[in-house]
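Title: Prediction job returns without error message
Component: structure pipeline
Severity: low
Priority: P3
Assignee: unassigned

Description:
Job completed but the reporter wants confirmation the result is attached to the right record. Sequence as submitted:
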Amino acid sequence: MARIVGGIGASHSPTIGYARDTGKHQDPGWKPIFDGFDAIRAWVHDRKVDVLFTIYNDHVTSFFFDHYSAFTLGIDDQYVAADEGGGPRDVPPARGHLGLSQHVGASLMADEFDMSFFQGKPVDHGFLSPLSMLGDADGPWPGQVVPLQVGVLQMPIPSARRMWKLGQSLRRAIESYPEDLNVAIMATGGLSHQVHGERAGFLNEAWDAEFLDLLETRPQTLVDMRIADYAARGGMEGAEVVMWLIMRGALSDQVRLVHKQTYAPSVTNIATLVFDDLGGPPDAAAAQAHRQHVGRELDGAGGLPGTYPFTHARSHANLRINAFLHDLVQPRHRARFVNDFDALAAEFGLSADEQDLIRGRRWIEMVRRGVSFFVLEKMAAVLGVPNPAVYAAFRGETLEQFLATRKLPLTYSVAGGQQARAMDAN
């Protein structure tokens, strides 16, 4: 079974990635940053960490305020560097652990955390600044990651207590995963800083030292604090350290401090922290019971005749074709789909099989493969095919045969405007 070997705390300031990318390893003003991450890298190597479950916040790069979630779990097999305005960093993609991420997502949902999930999105400095420091002269850190993006930039945000409870649920999730893995929980962000308004540049090193001590010995004190308390003591943006309570909540009550360092050269107090987890090994019976709990809601649904639950695994395996059909909501993509399909499909990298499925309108085969019905109905609308004709194709019937099974022989579509009127006229 997977086991949690310890926890890491690390700032994620863009200062960190900038220092690495510009080769400031031996510059006296920058060297303490590298020293702190050297200690983390050595511990990760010594503990033979296979997976870093990494808690971070995106900085309005891949996640914008038009759809802003509290907890968003990555369920992808790789995470590339985002372009934050001046071009992406020259770092290799991080490798995602698909199985663990999908299991954790299902487990958190079973524990009634209303999660969001992402794939195909690049990651910014909130994730990459600390991770990129774990590689060495021989290349990047060779392990795998599971990223959890926490929305802390648009109020209201989850409370410190909610972060703590998610950490406790996360421990159950990881310890019930059947693969033999050493997992470390890495919380990023902070410490004290404020980067907006007349209070920009605020630092409070005394609070930072107190926060780290409390995190080790009396985390419940931090759990009881309000977001406003964190903002007052550590700056509005420094309140993101509530994410560290996810890490601490996932650890045992008893931890051993391995490393702690802070360094406040400029705008952010940059911290590195490592705890050994002193808890015992996972309980096999408890892990088995939790796996049953995780699977309870969907158990049996996949066995229903003609039913294909759209799971994370099916979604990931078919993200490309689903994305291609989803983009039919864009007028330019629609026009090229109709008039220039071969070139458009090639640009998206669709396989020959995927292209044949779409050209042949092989509706049921696409569903069986893992294409969502709700992108298929967009394709149908573009082609002038009413929804009931798609349902009929699924069942191996003609449209007339399907309509004969309904109380009223209605046809309809998600198409709008002139397209809807043209379909209705036919």
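Comment from assignee: result matches the submitted record. Strands lie at 3-10, 51-56, 71-74, 78-79, 94-96, 116-118, 144-150, 182-188, 255-263, 270-277.
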